[in-house]
TrEMBL record, chain A:
Domain Acyl-CoA dehydrogenase/oxidase C-terminal intervals: 204-314
Protein family (similarity comment): Belongs to the acyl-CoA dehydrogenase family.
Cofactor(s) demanded: FAD
Keywords: FAD, Flavoprotein, Oxidoreductase
Protein name as it appears in the record: Acyl-CoA dehydrogenase
Acyl-CoA dehydrogenase/oxidase N-terminal domain segment(s): 3-96
Xref: Pfam families: Acyl-CoA_dh_1 (PF00441), Acyl-CoA_dh_N (PF02771)
The keyword Oxidoreductase appears for this protein: yes
InterPro entries: AcylCo_DH-like_C, AcylCo_DH/oxidase_C, AcylCoA_DH/ox_N, AcylCoA_DH/ox_N_sf, AcylCoA_DH/oxidase_NM_dom_sf
Automatic annotation (TrEMBL), chain B:
Domain Acyl-CoA oxidase/dehydrogenase middle: 126-209
Record's GO cellular component terms: plasma membrane
Residue ranges occupied by any Acyl-CoA dehydrogenase/oxidase N-terminal domain in the UniProt entry: 10-121
Record-given protein name: Acyl-CoA dehydrogenase
Length: 365, 377
C-alpha cells in the first residue's frame, strides 16, 4: 500500500475506533443515524475522498476511497461514506454540478423505479435509496430530450417512506411528484457517466466494505474460539472448529485481495471485469464466512449486543446491494462468453495492471 | 497473515507473452489438453521447455539452472497449466526435488542431479507414503540399516506417481529406531535409483484405469553415504518444509481450467444460467490467482509464507473440484470418457481424477490443521 494510503488507513482506523464502537453502532441502529461520527468524518474530509478538489472534493483516488471504506466496513460504520463521495460526488463532479453540503445518496435504478424529467420538472420514484431520507440530494440519471442527464434531486421536495436493510441502515423510498427542480440540479451526463458506471462503483464500494467487515469477523472468530473452553480446552483446538476458522480466513483474504486489486486498477475508473469478479467473490465470501463464523461462535453470535451480528447483518445486506453474486457472475460470464474461449485465460490472468505510483518495478502495492 | 496485491513487471509480462507465443506454436490446436501438473508424461516436451530455459528456473546457473525468481516461475507455470501443456515428466523434480537438493543437498549431489533436472531429462518421484503411513509421515516403516560405506534400505512405498517413468526418488525412511515421545526423530531422506536391481516397481491401477500410481518395493537396496539427502535424522523436518512453500503455486488451482475453456468453446451461445456459472468460476479463479501470485512475490522478498501457502492450496484445490462439478451440472450430460466432444471427454477425466487434488501434497484436513495453528499464532 502506498505510504499516503497507509497513513489514511491508520488515521481512519483511529477515528472509527474512537467514534464507532459496537455500542455506538447499537445506538445508531436505534436512531438510524450517527451524527457524531458523520461530523467527525466530514471534518476530516473523508466522505469526499476521490472527488477532485477543484470540484469541492477532498482529492485522492478511487483506491484511497476504497481503503477508507474497508476501514468503515470493519467498524460496521452506519454512515453513507460510499454514497456521498465515491458515488454521488463522482457523478456531480463529472457533470459539473455543485457538491451540496451534507450527506448525499444515489439511485442506480431498481425494478419499479421511474425517473421522468420534463424541462426541470421531476416526477420520480426511487426505492431503497441508502440514507435517502436524510440526504441533502439524491443523484440519479434521467433521459430528457434524447439526452442522458445527471439529476441532483433535493430530498426536501420528496415524500419519504422509510425502509431498512438487515443491518437497520436506512434504505428509503423517495417520491417526487411533479416537482420543480432548482437550476443547479440537472446537467448533461458526460460519456462514461451512466447508470452502469454508477452501479459498478457501487459494487466496488460494497466489495471494499465487505472486505473490511470480513477481516473483523475473522479476528472475532479467532479470538472467541481461542478463549471459549469446552470439554476442558479452547474450542479452536477441535479440528471441526479449525475448519471453520480456515474457511473464514480464506474467504476473507480472497475477497479482500480481489477488492483491493479492483480498487487499485481503477485509474481513474473501475474496470468492469475487476469489479464484477470482486463483487461476485465478495458476495460468496460474505455468505460462506458469515455462516462459518456463526457456527464457530454458537449462541453468543446470535445476540444483538455482540459485535459479530453487527457485521454479519451488514454482510447479508451488502452482498445484494448494487448487484448480488448471480447478477455479477452472469454479467461477467456474458462478457467473457462474447470474447470467446481463447480470450478466457488472458482475462482471468489480468491481475493488477500498470505501474504503481511510487513503487519500484514489480513491487507490492 | 499478509496477502499484498502485486503487479507483474514489464519483464515478467514479457516472459508471459513469450511463453504464450511458444505454447500457441508448440501445442497443436487439436491436441487434447493435459489436466494439471500430473496430466501427461512427455519427456520430449519437457526437454523442449528446458531448452527455452523454463525448467530449473529456481536452480542457480552454476548447477545448470537459470536463477529466476519465484514470480518468473509462477508466470511460466500458470501459462503451461492453463494451456494444458504436458509437463508431467519434469514437474515434480523441478518443483519439489530441486529446491530440496539446493537447501539440504551436498555440493556433490547438486552437481550430480541439478543439471539433469534443469535439462528436463532427470525425473524424480516422491518417496513418502507407505501402506500404513499417509498423512502421519512419522510412522513410516521403511528402514535403512548401517553397512560399510552406506545403508541398505528395505520397505515398501505406495502411490508412487510415475515411478515406472522416472529415474530417482527421495525415500523417507527410518535410520534409527523410533524413540518414545520423539517419533519425528530418526527419519532421513535417501536418494534411491528407481532402476536399482533391488527396486521393484509394480503398477497400482489408477481410478480411471490408467497407469499412474505404483508400489515400489525396496529389498536391501544399497544406498551409499553420499546419497543421504540432508542431515541424518532430519528427514521429517526436511519433507515438511519441502511441502510447505511449494503448496501455493498455479498447479494447485489450475488443474481443471482447460475443462472450462473447452466447455466455452463448444457453446454456440451461452444462456443466462451458463453465463452465471462461467462468471462465478472466472471470478473465483481471478481471486485465487491474486492470492497465489502474492505468495510467490512474498517468497521473492524473503518471507516464509507457510500459512498463506496452506490456505491457497486448501482453497485452490477445492476450487479445481468445484469447477468440475459446476460444469457437469451445467452441461446436463452423461459422462463418457470416450465422448467425441473434447469438453465431455475432459470432463469425464476430471471427474475421475479430481479427488486426488485435495489429497496430493497434503490433504485438505492436514492443511487446515497447519493453517489453523498459524492463524492462532
Amino acid at each position: 500500500m502506498s505510504d499516503d494510503r497507509q497513513m489514511l488507513t491508520e488515521v481512519a482506523t483511529g477515528l472509527f475506533g474512537d467514534l464507532c464502537t459496537p455500542e455506538d453502532v447499537v445506538a445508531a441502529e436505534a436512531t438510524a443515524w450517527s451524527g457524531r461520527l458523520w461530523d467527525a468524518l466530514s471534518e476530516s474530509g473523508f466522505p469526499l475522498v476521490s472527488v477532485p478538489e477543484e470540484a469541492g472534493g477532498s482529492g485522492g483516488d478511487v483506491a484511497d476511497a476504497c481503503a477508507l471504506l474497508t476501514v468503515a466496513g470493519r467498524f460496521a460504520a452506519p454512515v453513507p461514506l460510499a454514497e456521498t463521495g465515491l458515488l454521488a460526488g463522482w457523478a456531480l463532479a463529472a457533470a459539473g454540478l455543485e457538491l451540496p453540503e451534507g450527506t448525499l445518496s444515489v439511485a442506480v435504478g431498481r425494478p419499479g423505479d421511474t425517473v421522468r424529467l420534463t424541462g426541470r420538472r421531476l416526477t420520480a420514484r426511487l426505492s431503497r435509496v441508502p440514507w435517502g431520507g436524510r440526504s441533502t440530494r439524491v443523484v440519479a440519471f434521467a433521459e430528457t430530450g434524447g439526452q442522458r442527464v445527471v439529476v441532483s434531486a433535493p430530498t426536501a421536495a420528496a415524500s419519504v417512506t422509510p425502509g431498512r436493510n438487515l443491518a437497520a441502515e436506512p434504505r428509503d423510498t423517495l417520491v417526487w411528484d411533479d416537482v420543480e427542480l432548482p437550476e443547479d440540479a440537472v446537467a448533461p451526463a458526460p460519456d462514461g457517466v451512466d447508470p452502469a458506471a454508477l452501479r459498478l462503483r457501487g459494487a466496488l464500494a460494497r466489495s471494499a466494505q465487505i472486505a473490511g467487515a470480513l477481516a473483523r469477523v475473522s479476528e472475532l472468530s479467532l479470538r472467541y474460539t481461542g478463549e471459549r473452553q469446552q470439554f476442558g480446552r479452547p474450542i479452536a483446538r477441535f479440528q471441526a472448529v479449525q475448519a471453520h476458522l480456515v474457511t473464514i480466513a480464506e474467504e476473507t483474504q480472497l475477497a479482500g485481495l480481489a477488492a483491493q486489486v479492483a480498487a487499485l486498477n481503477a485509474r481513474p475508473d473501475p474496470s468492469f471485469d475487476d469489479v464484477a469478479a470482486a463483487k461476485a467473490a465478495a458476495g460468496e465470501a460474505a455468505t460462506v464466512a458469515a455462516r462459518a463464523a456463526h457456527q464457530a461462535h454458537g449462541a453468543i453470535g446470535m445476540t444483538k449486543e455482540y459485535e459479530l451480528g453487527q457485521l454479519t447483518r451488514r454482510l447479508w445486506s451488502w452482498r445484494d446491494e448494487f448487484g448480488g453474486e448471480r447478477y455479477w457472475s452472469r454479467e461477467l460470464g456474458r462478457r467473457l462468453a462474447a470474447e470467446g474461449a481463447d480470450a478466457l485465460w488472458p482475462s482471468i490472468s489480468t491481475g493488477l495492471v500498470g505501474e504503481l505510483a511510487g513503487s519500484p518495478e514489480g513491487a507490492v502495492a | 497473515m499478509q496477502f499484498a496485491p502485486t503487479v507483474l513487471s514489464p519483464a515478467e509480462e514479457a516472459l508471459r507473452a513469450e511463453v504464450r507465443d511458444f505454447l500457441a506454436a508448440e501445442l497443436p490446436a487439436d491436441s487434447r489438453p493435459a489436466l494439471g501438473f500430473a496430466g501427461r508424461h512427455d519427456p520430449e516436451f519437457s526437454r523442449t521447455l528446458a531448452e527455452r530455459g523454463w525448467v530449473g528456473m529456481a536452480i542457480p546457473p552454476e548447477y545448470g539452472g537459470h536463477g529466476r525468481s519465484a514470480v518468473d516461475r509462477f508466470v511460466v507455470a500458470e501459462e503451461l497449466l492453463a494451456a494444458g501443456a504436458p509437463i508431467g515428466a519434469h514437474f515434480v523434480a523441478d518443483r519439489q526435488t530441486a529446491p530440496a537438493l539446493l537447501h539440504f543437498g551436498t555440493e556433490e549431489q547438486r552437481r550430480r542431479f541439478l543439471p539433469g533436472i534443469a535439462a528436463g531429462e532427470v525425473y524424480f518421484s516422491l518417496g513418502m507414503s507407505e501402506p500404513d503411513s499417509g498423512s502421519d509421515l512419522a510412522s513410516v516403516r521403511t528402514r535403512a540399516t548401517r553397512v560399510e560405506g552406506g545403508w541398505t534400505v528395505t520397505g515398501t512405498k505406495v502411490w508412487t506417481s510415475e515411478a515406472h517413468n522416472n529415474h530417482f526418488f527421495a525415500v523417507l525412511c527410518r535410520t534409527s529406531p523410533m524413540e518414545e515421545g520423539r517419533k519425528h526423530a530418526g527419519l532421513s531422506q535417501l536418494v534411491v535409483d528407481l532402476h536399482d536391481p533391488g527396486v521393484t516397481v509394480s503398477p497400482i491401477p489408477y481410478l480411471d484405469g490408467s497407469h499412474h500410481f505404483n508400489e515400489v518395493a525396496l529389498e536391501e537396496v544399497f544406498v551409499p553415504d553420499d546419497m543421504v539427502l540432508g542431515e541424518l535424522g532430519s528427514g521429517w523436518q526436511q519433507v515438511t518444509s519441502e511441502l510447505a512453500y511449494e503448496r501455493s503455486g498455479p498447479d494447485r488451482w489450475l488443474s481443471t481450467f482447460p475443462v472450462l475453456r473447452e466447455w466455452l468453446r463448444e457453446r454456440p451461445a451461452v444462456t443466462d444460467d451458463e453465463a452465471a456459472v462461467l462468471g462465478r468460476l472466472a471470478a473465483r479463479a481471478r481471486a485465487i490467482r491474486h492470492l497465489s501470485l502474492s505468495v510467490a512475490r512474498s517468497l521473492d522478498a524473503g518471507a516464509a509464507p507457510s500459512v498463506e501457502a496452506a490456505l491457497v492450496k486448501e482453497v485452490g484445490t477445492r476450487f479445481e473440484q468445484d469447477l468440475v462439478e459446476a460444469l457437469r451440472d451445467a452441461a446436463e450430460t452423461e459422462l463418457d470418457q470416450g465422448s467425441g466432444s473434447l469438453f465431455q471427454a475432459l470432463l469425464a477425466e476430471a471427474v475421475l481424477t479430481s479427488p486426488s487434488y485435495t489429497l496430493r501434497g497434503g490433504t485438505t484436513e492436514v492443511l487446515r490443521s497447519v493453517a489453523a495453528k498459524g492463524l492462532a499464532a
